[in-house]
Amino acid sequence: MSDAANHITLTIDGVEVSVEAGTTLLQAAEHAGVVVPHYCYHPGIPSRPAQCRMCLVEIEGQPKLQPSCVFPAGDGMVVHTTSETAETARKSVIEFLLLNHPLDCPICDAAGQCMLQDYAFETGQLRSRYAEAKLVLGRDRVADDILYFGDRCIVCTRCVRFMEDLAGDNALVVAQRGHKAYIDTFPGKDLDHAFRGNIVDVCPVGALVHEDFVFKARAWDMDSSPGICPGCSTGCNVEINVKENQIVRTKPRLNPDVNSYWMCDHGRRILVMANRGVRAEAPMIRQGGELEPASWNEALSWVAEKLSDSSGVAVVSAGASNEALFYTRALLDRLGIQGGTFQVEQGEEVTLTGFPRLKLRADRAPNVRGAELHDFRLSEELPEVSDGATLVVLGDALSGAAADYGANAGFFLYIGSHLVPAARNATAILPAATVPETEGTFVNYEGRVQRFHRALRSPGVARPSWMFLSRLLEHLGGPSGVREIGDAFAVMATDTAGMHGLTWSGLGLRGELLSEAGQPAVAAE
Amino acid sequence: MTDTGDQVKKPLHPAAASSQAFQVADIRPTERLFDDPEGRDRLEKVLSRYPEKRAALLPMLGYAQERNGWVSDESMAEIAGALDLTPAYVRSVTTFYTMYNRHPVGRHLIQVCTCISCHLDEADEVFERFLSETGTRAGEISEDGRYTVIEAECLGACGFATAVQVNDRYFENVTPEKVPAILDELD
Q: Taking a C-beta distance cutoff of 8 angstroms, is the pair A331, A323 a contact?
C-alpha cells in the first residue's frame, strides 16, 4: 500500500508521530499534541512568510533553528520545540515584540484572547530591559468599521495576507519598514470588501478591532454559543458572543465544508442587529375586539377551539428553523390549508476569491432549502387574504407588509417574535423565540442540515415555535407535544423525505447533507 | 583627488548625462506623470524591459521622483493604474525605500552623509553650515525653492569624507568652508 510510503515518522518532543509527507513541522507537532507558538502562520491563509520567528524549533543535526510553519517534516527527524535553544530564541522574539508594545491590556479588547499576552506570560520576562522611550503610532481607521491600533501591532501581516490571498484585494499593506513598519491602506481608499471583517479575527493581538465592538465587552465577560449565521443561504458556522443577554459579537467558527475560518460582514452585523425590535413577550388573544395577554394554556386551548377547518393561506419565513416549519406544516395539514409561501430578500452575491465555496449568497435567508423541503414555495408577493379566510403566519414574514395586512382574515394566527404593524391585526399572537434564543436546524444552499444552539434567553414567556406548535397540535387531537429539540428533530426526520436517518446528535457541529431523495426539484446552484 | 571646485565646473560627460536624468535639476512638483507623451514614452520604454508589469514599479517611482522631485499620493495612484497594481501596494513599496521622497523638495536636494566615517570627519559641521547658508531647517524647502538639506545614511564614499550628494552628483572631501562655493555653483 502506498499509504506507508506517503507517511513519515518523526519524533517531536519525545513523542513519535506518523504524518503524511509534506506536512510541516508545526502541523506534525499538533499531531503530537504540541502547540508551537506562532503569529504569522494562520492555517486558513495560504502564504507563509515565516517572518515572525516565533515558531523556531531545534532539529537534531541542523546547525540552526528552523521555522516550523514552513519546514517540512522529514523521516526520522528528531525535533525539540522546548529545548533551551528554542526557548531562548522564542524569549528573544517576545522581548523584541514587546519593545514598543504598550501595556494597555487593561483596556485592550484582545486581552484574554491575545496570543502576545499568552506567550509573554508564558515566557515570563517580568521587566523590559528597554530603556528608550516607546514608539507611539496612535490609532487609525482602515475601514469605516475597523480601527487599527498601531502600537499594539506586531506586523505579522496576517491581515495583509488575508486581503491579498483570500479577498483578492491588495488594499491593505505594510507601510514603512523595520521598527517603523505599520499596517495601512492608501489614503482615501479604506477597505470596502464584503469580507474585510475577517482581518479582525486573524489579528493575533488587539491591533485590529471592530468599531462596533470596541470597549464593549471583555473576553471573560462573554458567553459563547455555536450558531449558524442567518444572513444568507450559505449558513456560515459562527460563534455568538453574548454579554448580559445581548449579542455583542459574531465570529466565524471553523467548518471546512462550509465557511472555513471566514464569514462576511453582512453576517457579522445581522445577529447584533437582532437585539433590536419590539418583541412579542406573551401570548395574546383577541377578546371583545382587543388583543389581551393570556397564559400559554389559556391561549393554546382558545386557539385550538376557535381555529376551524377552513380555506386559508399561510406565510412563513425562510429564517425559521426546520422544526418550526415542520410543525407549522403539520398544523396547516390538520386545518386543511394547502400550500403556503415565503419571501426571500435578494442581495448582491459576493465570493471570497481565495475560498470560492464561501459566498455571501443572493438569497438573504438561512433556510430557503428547508422551507422548500416542507412544501412552502417562494413567492415575490404576500398572498391575498380573502375576507373571512384563515391566515397563518410563521416567523418574521410580515416585516415588509402593509399595516392593514390580514385585517380582513376570519382568523389570523401570528406565530412570531416581533410585533410588526401587521401583527396587531392578529386574532391570536403566539410569541416565538428568535433563532439565537432557541435550538434547531437550517438547510443551507447545498442541502447541508446544520444545527444551531441557544445563545440568549427569550423575553417574557416567548417559547420556541416548534415547542408550542406541537402542543397546539396536541390540543387539536394530535400526538403529545415535544419538549426537547432532539425529539422534535426525530419526529421531523421520520416524516420528512431526505432527512431519514439524520439524528440531532449525529449532525454534530459540522452538519450532514440531505440524502438524494430530499433534494428539492429546484436545485440550489 | 578632485578638488570640489573643479568638480562643480567640470561639465558632465555626455554619456553620463543622458543615462542619469536625475541630473537635470528641473522639477515640476505637481505635474501628472502620464498626461503627456514624455511620461507615456518612458512608461512604454520601461515596460518593454520586463516580462511583467509589476517589475516596472521601482523605475516608474524613480521617474515620478525625477519629474516631480518627490513621489506624491497622486503619482502613486497613477503608477498603480498604469501597472495594474493597487495604490496601497505602490504605497507600501514607496515607503519601504527611504530614497523615494515622500514630501516635495527644493530643486537641489542636498544630502549630507552623517554616517560613521563622515561623522568622524566634519559631517555635523558641514550639515549645520548647509542649513545656515540656505536658511532652512532639516527637510525644509528654502524660501526661493532652491534647496532642501537632509541627513543621509552612508553614501558609500567613506574614503572621501565628508561626502555630500546634491541630486545625483557627489561632492567629496567637503569641509564647512567649501559649502558656500558649492551652493554658488548650483543654479
A: no
Portion 170-199 of A in contact with B at CB < 8 A: 170-177, 184-187, 189
The span from the CA of A516 to the CA of A496, in Å, is 13
Q: How far is B30 from chain A (nearest CA, A)?
A: 18
At A318-355, the pLDDT tens digits run 999 999 999 999 999 999 998 999 999 999 999 999 99
CB of B76 less than 8 A from some CB of A = yes
Domain A102-221 has CATH 3.30.930.10: no
CA A13 to chain centre: 36
Tell me if the bond preceding A496 is cis, omega within 30° of 0: no
Cβ of B107: how many Cβ atoms within 10 Å?
19
The domain spans of chain A are 2-96, 102-221, 284-518
Say whether residue B61 is in contact with chain A using an 8 A CB cutoff.
no
Measured between CA atoms, how close is A173 to chain B, in angstroms?
Answer: 6
Residue of B nearest to A178 (CA): B96
Q: Is A390 helix (H, G, I), strand (E, B) or coil?
A: strand
pLDDT tens digit string along B18-42? 344 344 446 787 889 999 999 999 9
Q: Which three cell numbers stand for residue A402?
A: 402593509
Give me the domains of chain B, ranges plus CATH numbers.
17-96 (1.10.10.1590), 105-185 (3.40.30.10)
User: For residue A455, which of A425, A435, A429 has the smallest C-alpha distance?
Assistant: A435
- Write down how long chain B is: 187
Please tell me which residue of chain B has the smallest CA distance to A142.
B88
Q: For residue B145, give the nearest of B175, B116, B186 by alpha carbon.
A: B186
Tell me which fold the domain A284-518 belongs to. Answer: Rossmann fold (3.40.50)
- On whether any CB of chain B is under 8 Å from the CB of A140, the answer is no
**Which residues, in sequence order, are bridge partners of residue A148?**
A140, A208
What CATH number labels A2-96? 3.10.20.740
> What pTM does this model have?
0.90
- A78-80 and A284-287 strand pairing: unpaired
Chain B nearest-CA residue for A181: B96
Name the residue among B73, B77, B88 with its Cβ closest to that of A173: B88
Please report, for residues A168, A245, A366, A376, the alpha-carbon distance to residue A341 in angstroms, rounded to integers and kept in the order given: 39, 33, 16, 5
ipTM tops the 0.95 cut: no
* End-to-end CA gap in chain A: 38
Partnered with residue A226 across adjacent β-strands are A239
User: Which residue in B73, B77, B91 is closest to A173 by CB distance?
Assistant: B91
